[in-house]
Specification:
single chain, 150 residues, alpha+beta, 5-stranded antiparallel β-sheet, two-stranded antiparallel sheet, 2 helices, 29% strand, globular, disordered N terminus
């Protein structure tokens, strides 16, 4: 599956994952992030000890293309960052399953629990599996019409 980043360079999702595996990651430096108000994707880690943790994608990213800092809704970059987070946490060898869920809601409100479509899945020691229907518009938003027929 090809992901096109905001810099118009094609990046393969599996290459992103492999890059994260090769990076040196210190879990002591990882800090918990706050829950955003709006998010298209949710990452859920299921750990070996029975616990689980949830991380949301940050879809509002700064854009400096005009010389002025503006925020734009970039769902593709938010998904890519969650893939990198899975790869960084893989070195800890503490989770069994990591799953990225997506919502088809237009509002993308994180207080509503409607993240019910799994789009990426990885089990400890295996390769990542990404939903082949996950496509993006030229504005880096998910093409929701491909998922509303479920």
């Amino acid at each position: 599956m090809q992901i096109e980043s905001t810099r118009n360079t094609k990046v393969d999702a599996t290459n992103l994952f492999q890059t994260a595996l090769r990076q040196n990651f210190n879990p002591a430096l990882y800090r918990k992030s706050q829950k955003p108000k709006w998010s298209r994707f949710k990452l859920k880690f299921n750990y070996r000890d029975g616990n689980e943790s949830t991380h949301f994608s940050y879809d509002w990213n700064p854009d400096y293309s005009t010389g002025v800092k503006k925020y734009r809704d970039d769902e593709q970059m938010g998904f890519s960052k969650l893939i990198l987070l899975i790869g960084k946490n893989r070195d800890n060898d503490t989770y069994n399953i990591a799953t990225i869920y997506m919502t088809v809601s237009i509002k993308k409100d994180t207080s509503v629990q409607d993240y019910d479509i799994p789009v990426a899945y990885i089990q400890r020691g295996k390769d990542i599996k990404i939903e082949p229907r996950l496509k993006y518009t030229p504005e880096n938003k998910v093409r929701l019409e491909l998922f509303k027929t479920l």
